[in-house]
Amino acid sequence: MTTHTEAEIASQPSCWRRAVDGVPADALPRPGERVAVVGCGTSWFIAMAYAALREQAGHGETDAFAASEFPAGRAYDRVLALSRSGTTTEVLELLSRTATATTAITADPDTPIMSAADEVVVLDYADERSVVQTRFATTQLALLRASLGEDLTQAVADAERAVAEPLPEELVNAEQFSFLGTGWSVGLAQEAALKMREASRSWTEAYPAMEYRHGPISIAAPGRVTWMLGAAPEGLRAQVEQTGATFVESGLDPMAELIRAQRVAVARAFARGLDPDEPLHLTRSVILSS
């Protein structure tokens, strides 16, 4: 029987196509605006990826923050809040206290964020039943990438490959994972590590790729995996392989590579007798009592 998480992971290519075809005309950050992107958990990591991409595309200065760490008093033209549930306490509190123009992206049109933000983009077709967030995270990033003028044709094709290819047993059975990224894929590396923790309680870490040699490589060893999302810095593969660890670099779009990590997380959950739809100690949304 297919779990909700598995079905949602497999639906990502079609969700991305829909997102690319449905970029709103005016709700998202405008070129030249100074933007803060905020979220919690997965949404924070997607915020990190978008912030790097937006600056790289020349659309304006863009910072990413966990909603609880937003710097009071710093001037922005717009705050972009990411929240699948639309009920996350830290995000709603931030939206309620800022005088800056606000936009939110959510999956649920029947939640408080609809009135908390000035403008709202609803991706209800990408909503999820699973607690572990997969397709909503990548679909909103596909939307944001398309809004920057990116052509996601190859990314979608890579995603179709990522949902279909068999998974190597050495990944399903590995002892430990270190996920690496550069630029915008640093956020995706953090998200890949989070998925592995949430779904399968695995020992995972994440770093900017050039930082990996500044200490973290000390835990690389046979039976452990160093997994690159995007192109690896020169010489890194050889250094990792000298430790006996497995180095993974597929050449897929980093968002599609994230799908592979999601699938490995689910496969590891099954191997450990866990239900990826019901991760330990987690709920769909963190709603704090006052």
Describe this structure in words.
With 290 residues, the protein is an alpha/beta fold. It has 11 helices and 9 strands. The strands form 2 sheets. The chain has a 5-stranded parallel sheet with strand order 2-1-3-4-5, sandwiched between helices. A 4-stranded parallel sheet has the order 7-6-8-9. Helix 4 links the parallel strand 3 and strand 4. Helix 3 (42-56) runs antiparallel to helix 9 (185-200) and helix 9 runs parallel beside helix 11 (254-271). The model has no long low-confidence stretch (mean pLDDT 95).
Give the topology:
Layout: H1 4-10, H2 12-21, E1 35-39, H3 42-56, E2 62-66, E3 78-82, H4 89-97, E4 101-106, H5 113-116, E5 119-122, H6 135-147, H7 153-164, H8 169-172, E6 176-181, H9 185-200, E7 204-208, E8 224-229, H10 236-242, E9 246-248, H11 254-271
Span from first to last CA? 40 Å
Number of DSSP helical runs: 11
How many β-strand stretches?
Answer: 9
Tell me, rounded to a whole number, the average pLDDT.
95
Which features would summarize this protein structure in a list?
single chain, 290 residues, alpha/beta, five-stranded parallel β-sheet, four-stranded parallel β-sheet, 11 helices, 9 strands, 16% strand
Concise structural overview:
This protein is of the alpha/beta class and 290 residues long. It has helices spanning 4-10, 12-21, 42-56, 89-97, 113-116, 135-147, 153-164, 169-172, 185-200, 236-242, 254-271, and strands spanning 35-39, 62-66, 78-82, 101-106, 119-122, 176-181, 204-208, 224-229, 246-248.
